[in-house]
Amino acid sequence: TDSGTGHGVVFGGGRSYAKNIYSGAHGGYGILLQESNSSQFVGLETILNGSHGTAIIGRPSPNNNINGATVLNIDSNVNLGSGVYLENCFADNIIGATVQSNARYGIEFGPLTQLHNISGIYSEANTLGSGLMNAGSNANSLQYNIVQDANPVDNGTNNSIKLNDDPSYGLSKFNTLQA
Fold first, then answer.
1. Contact 161, 154 (CB under 8 A)
2. What is the pTM of this model?
3. Which residues are within 8 A (CB) of 142 and not within 5 positions of it... i.e. 6 or more apart?
4. Which of 45, 20, 14 lies closest to 31, judged by CA?
5. How does the average pLDDT of the chain come out, rounded?
6. Strand, coil or helix: what is 168?
7. Which residue has the higher pLDDT, 151 or 94?
8. Tell me, what DSSP letter sits at residue 155?
């Protein structure tokens, strides 16, 4: 635990590897990935945290971003921020994210985010909706399997949002959204 901020688990070194990490009931972020270039994380679970569940945030210096990381299987529920939040980072991949009942969005892109690919998203009952790509997000891709809350919003540039439109699952209202 980061006692200065109340964050649960904090990773701050490049080429980190972690598997099956749980972080719950912290005052700040559940899990914070920063300066974790070329890292791999598998099975991150965050619940009941006072801010974002899983945060991927580079420090505010031109050379301290986070890039080239791969995260497999995030489960982020009932956090007071967004389930997954990204800022000051680029070219990271998240495969498989379940985001439910978070106070903000399921997935949220803050400023200085570009070239991310997040796929296999299940989003349900997030207060403000399934996703938000803020101004300053550029060339990111979101691919949802299921959206059970408001459709994602793209306020950035050159982003892509794909929603499952397979009518055999009764999801024909979902389609591809692009700004």
1. yes
2. 0.89
3. 107, 118, 119, 121, 131, 133, 152, 159, 160, 161, 162
4. 45
5. 88
6. helix
7. 94
8. -
